[in-house]
Amino acid sequence: MTQVKICCIASIEEANLAIKYGASAIGLVSEMPSGPGVISEETIKEIAEQTPPSISTFLLTSKQNVDEIIEQHHRCGTNTIQLCDKIITGSHLQLKKALPRIKIVQVIHVTNDESINEAIETSNLVDAILLDSGNQKLVTKELGGTGRTHDWSISRKIVESVKIPVYLAGGLNPQNVVEAILQVKPYGVDICSGVRTNSKLDEEKLKLFFDRVKSVNKLLAVDK
Hints:
By secondary structure, this protein is an alpha/beta fold. It has one domain (3-223): Aldolase class I (TIM Barrel, Alpha-Beta Barrel). The protein contains eight helices and ten strands. The strands form two sheets. An eight-stranded parallel beta barrel has the order 1-2-3-4-5-6-7-8, surrounded by seven helices. It has a two-stranded antiparallel sheet with strand order 9-10. Strand 6 (128-132), helix 6 (152-161) and strand 7 form a beta-alpha-beta unit. Helix 3 (66-76) runs parallel beside helix 4 (92-98), helix 5 (114-122) packs parallel to helix 6 (152-161) and helix 7 packs parallel to helix 8 (203-223). The chain starts with a strand and ends with a helix.
């Protein structure tokens, strides 16, 4: 069954709504150079504390220093860390040793075939990979929440090349999620703006998204 992560959660009410429809994970966005959904670390901590333990709470961080990431996690208390940029000071191993019970998810911003090698190398260091459509080379970095899709044929190659779970993000919505799952066959899908209206979680869009995911899961089950 394709897992669903609802990102850019802004309140415990939004978290509960996402979980009600079947989200297995929620994304809590800390300070970013750009993009939607940023909330305070205090709010992240509050939501993480009130979310059932069975649900993955992702702290989205733009920090690139392992010591700073560890300190931020201690303040926020999620059960998962989503690294939206590359680590430049410290290592994934250092992070996992410091936080052995915390899942580490590395974002790979899919640009070209070089992203495949990046994902393969990274897959030995983390618990999961998330494929997104950002651009780390811009003056103001894009680390997610762009609302753009990327080349799903590259994403499919990544899924086929690694042995850990792969989430697909970037421009997903109720209209294209069936095609995305059929083409990429990810472990999970991750959505933010595609289920929102005026930045608020939209229950109708949310329900439609989950209905589409369930329909394609049934189709894949029949194919097996």
